[in-house]
Automatic annotation (TrEMBL):
Its main location: membrane. It holds the Pfam family BPD_transp_2. This is Ribose transport system permease protein. It is found in: Cell membrane.
Amino acid sequence: MTATAIDAPPAPPAPARSQRLKDPAFWADWAALVGLIGLTIVFQALNSTFLSYGNVQSILVAAAILVILSIGQTFTIATGGIDLSVASVMTFAACAFGWAFTQGWALPLCMVIAVVAGLAFGAVNGVLIAKGKIPDFVVTLGTLSAASGLALILSDGKPTTVISPFLLKFSTQGLGLFGWTFILAIGIAVVTHVVLFNTRFGTHVLAAGGSAEAATATGISTARIKIAVYTISGVLAGLSGILLVARIGASSPAADTTMTLNTVAAVVLGGVSLLGGRATIVGPVLGALVLTVLVNGLTLVGVSQFYQPLAVGIVVVLAALLMRFQK
């Protein structure tokens, strides 16, 4: 008996490059990278020192905290949620670090205290959202206020100076162009990328964000996933608190609430769907760099800092509009 070969149906032709460039979805997927290149060209044209060694180095160092916070925000948004408390939790973790430091505790223990403080707030967020069935923005708005209040109570409303040669070297030195804080941020990005795309947990995160009902039907505990992603966000906020102390040499109870908006902006610019189920780590990292470059460039060309939140807001709205074309 002679076997009859069955020809496979021809594959659909790939779209021509010119057609892809006309497709808004293409630009939506690459918004962060295109924005980063475009801003670099514009600011370099306006000020020749923009791409100087020292300025690029300072941009990368300044972006480290936002990169780490944005990665944590990515995990919560990937499940269809949002964490509005990241900036306040970071401030509380920094104050916890400062309080432990004034007690004479060893530096590694102070760092552990900061991370545990962030972890605790993240876990509380996750449990209230997953088990309490309370909307995420309500819970995280509440913990935003609670973390800010605890930071003020713990520090008595005063900044605490933290003098540490190790932290000073960590925040000012590095490998060539890349400071240690930025290297740490990239290391976290690599690890979380592997977790999100090469582990069962990452698959469950995206599945829970895509359709909670379908994920539950396949045996995925969406409640555990929710608790886990908010805990990750809290841990990364605690870690950012350490970087904040290292950068300014003190723990201040004054929360930088604009950092929360910037994390959401970086995630949106990075092509992560606010509806959940679609995420990337590289995108938010590039988004964080775009926002840092934007603020640095505006400062360098002499634009008043009062206009910087306006510029960030416009970028976020434009990115959200572009997301409508994502496939």
